[in-house]
Amino acid sequence: MPQSYLGKRQPHVPVMVREVLSLLVHDPNGIYVDCTAGCGGHTVAILGKLSHQGRLIGLDRDKDSLLVANEKLKAFGERVFLFNKDFRKLPDVLEELSVKSLSGVLFDLGLSSYQLGLKRGFSFQEEAPLDMRFDSTTGTTAAEILNNSDETRLAEILRVYGDVRNADRVARSIVEHRKEKPLSTTAHLVTAVRRTISSKNPNSSLARIFQAIRIAVNGELDAIREGLAIATTFLARGGRICVIGYHSGEDRIVKQFMRGEATFADGSSSRLELLTHKVIRPSEQEVAANPRSRSARLRAARRLENEQIP
User: Fold this and answer.
1) Is residue 308, in this structure, part of any structural domain at all?
2) 31 vs 28: CA distance, rounded Å
3) What distance in Å separates the CA atoms of residue 192 and residue 209, rounded to the nearest whole number?
4) Furthest-apart CA atoms within the chain: distance in Å
5) Are residues 285 and 152 in the same domain?
6) How many CB atoms lie within 10 A of CB 271?
7) 221, 249, 214, 254: which is closest to 118 by C-alpha?
């Protein structure tokens, strides 16, 4: 890996904790779900705002991250339940726990610093196999997508999922390099795209390329659409849903979903009331302390009191 592309890995710091707690936690005795519990950063903060009657359910596809979270959360005992599951499996989890409705749901759609340090190819700053799966036991790897997709499909992935400006050129370079040798490591991918990226800000360009491939590997945008719809159906009247996104594709889906649920074109009753009419960004102080928070975007909504819950 070229030295100019390397950087120091930082411990994971949850983003906009104060803002999330203010918008999400309205009933200290309620049941909340962290749909992307990860290493437990937001989970610990939410539990700290709840009473001894309050409960929290954490889900995550990444088993390794949940092992870290489990250590952090031992002190909370039976007030917290962790599940190594995709958040689209929320109905199964709630049925298992005999939970009918929720006071609040959080989605933090970012990749944690801990995950970036795993040898799964998430980061261009770490030499690793091109895997990029959140759940390393199932699904298609990054290497398989990069080596088997045609140039048109690769360009589409880069453009749609990473906002890569010169997506066609990057895709062409990947195809040319894999003719000589299949791409199997992060170093191979960096080498394949190096000549196509900006010399002024190579790290930003590489981050976008790696982000795009990761999203394709994990089907992240489709999962977000499904997950938001599922979680909303379980919100009690007055229940809150908060979502932190980190790029335009994620935020566009969240914004469209919340606005769509808040204003039904046919005049029928809306399910949600927007709590954030404009996206909330991290403060300058937070960005200075945690530069990786810079791209975070928070949106929130409340389940309407007069909406008939299915």
Assistant:
1) no
2) 9
3) 11
4) 63
5) no
6) 20
7) 214
Q: What is the pLDDT of residue 5?
A: 34
Helix 202-218 vs helix 186-193: angle between axes, to the nearest 10 degrees? 120
* pTM assigned to the model: 0.87
**Which single residue is written with the structure tokens 């606005």?**
259
Provide the pLDDT for residue 199.
76
Residue 112's pLDDT is what? Answer: 64
Residue 257 near residue 272, CB atoms below 8 Å = no
Low-confidence ranges of the chain (pLDDT < 70): 1-12, 112-118, 264-269, 305-310
Q: What is the CATH number of the domain that holds 164?
A: 1.10.150.170
Q: How many domains does the chain have?
A: 2
pLDDT at residue 4, as a whole number: 35
Segment 60-109, tens digit of pLDDT: 988 888 898 999 999 999 999 999 999 999 999 999 999 999 999 999 99
pLDDT attached to residue 233: 96
Same domain, 43 and 26: yes
pLDDT of amino acid 27: 98
Give the pLDDT of residue 138: 85
Q: Please state the separation of Cα 152 from the chain's center in Å.
A: 26
SS (H, E, C) the chain: CCHHHCCCCCCCCCCCHHHHHHHHCCCCCCEEEECCCCCCHHHHHHHHHCCCCCEEEEECCCHHHHHHHHHHHHHHHHHEEEECCCHHHHHHHHHHHCCCCEEEEEEECCCCHHHHHCCCCCCCCCCCECCCCCCCCCCCCHHHHHHHCCHHHHHHHHHHHHCCCCHHHHHHHHHHHHHHCCCCEHHHHHHHHHHHCCCCCHHHHHHHHHHHHHHHHHCHHHHHHHHHHHHHHCEEEEEEEEEEECCHHHHHHHHHHHHHHHCCCCCCCCCEEECCCCCECCCHHHHHHCHHHCCCEEEEEEECCCCCCC
